[in-house]
């Protein structure tokens, strides 16, 4: 095996090991910088809260409608009690039955969104804001950190 091939194999093995032991780093590196830039820009445009604020508001019952914008399989693997599941890719279409459509739509309905890392919830909050909902907040937190903190998750 040539030195170049050996170097390539070693690099591949190291990247695989990093991916196995540091999955957040590996997934963070699997998207172009444009995605991170879009999420950062979007987070600056929407109202966000951190995990401790989310937990405090959850305990007080002051989050309004809690929406998990992850995919159904992710939701089933563990979600926050009281949350409904509306995947980010369907939020524009599925939100309406939860805000009174077709009789009396409440565009001021308080909604708090969360996802796996805070990225999809920010993007979904922006979409709801674009639809003219006025009381939407995105939780800028990791569901993994939520579980590590010992906060409960409902599994289906």
Essential attributes:
Oxidized Rhodanese, domain 1, 49% helix, 2 domains, 156 residues, single chain, 5 strands
Strand order of the largest sheet: 1-5-4-2-3
Compute the number of structural domains: 2
Give the biggest beta sheet: 5 strands, parallel
Work out the radius of gyration: 19 Å
Quick one: overall form?
A: globular
Mind telling me which CATH architecture of the largest domain this is? 3-Layer(aba) Sandwich
The portion of residues assigned to helices is 40-55%
Report on the structure:
Residues 1-28 have low confidence and may be disordered. The chain starts with a helix and ends in an 8-residue tail after the last helix. Strand 4, helix 7 and strand 5 (136-139) form a beta-alpha-beta unit. A five-stranded parallel beta sheet has the order 1-5-4-2-3. It has two domains: 1-30; 32-148, Rhodanese-like domain (Oxidized Rhodanese, domain 1, 3-Layer(aba) Sandwich), CATH 3.40.250.10. The protein is an alpha/beta fold and 156 residues long. The protein is built from eight helices and five strands, in the order αααβαβαβαβαβα. 49% of the residues lie in helices and 11% in strands.
What's a concise summary of this model?
By secondary structure, the protein is an alpha/beta fold.
């Amino acid at each position: 095996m040539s030195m170049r091939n050996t170097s390539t194999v070693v690099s591949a093995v190291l990247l695989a090991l990093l991916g196995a032991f540091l999955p957040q780093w590996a997934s963070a590196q699997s998207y172009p910088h444009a995605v991170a830039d879009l999420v950062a820009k979007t987070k600056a445009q929407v109202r966000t809260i951190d995990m401790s604020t989310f937990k405090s508001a959850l305990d007080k019952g002051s989050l309004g409608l809690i929406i998990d914008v992850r995919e159904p399989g992710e939701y089933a693997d563990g979600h926050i009690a009281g949350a409904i599941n509306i995947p980010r890719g369907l939020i524009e279409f599925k939100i309406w039955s939860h805000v009174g459509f077709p009789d009396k739509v409440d565009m001021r309905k308080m909604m708090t969104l969360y996802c796996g890392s805070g990225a999809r919830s920010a993007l979904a909050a922006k979409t709801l804001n674009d639809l003219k909902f006025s009381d939407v907040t995105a939780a800028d937190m990791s569901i993994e950190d939520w579980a590590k903190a010992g906060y409960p998750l409902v599994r289906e």
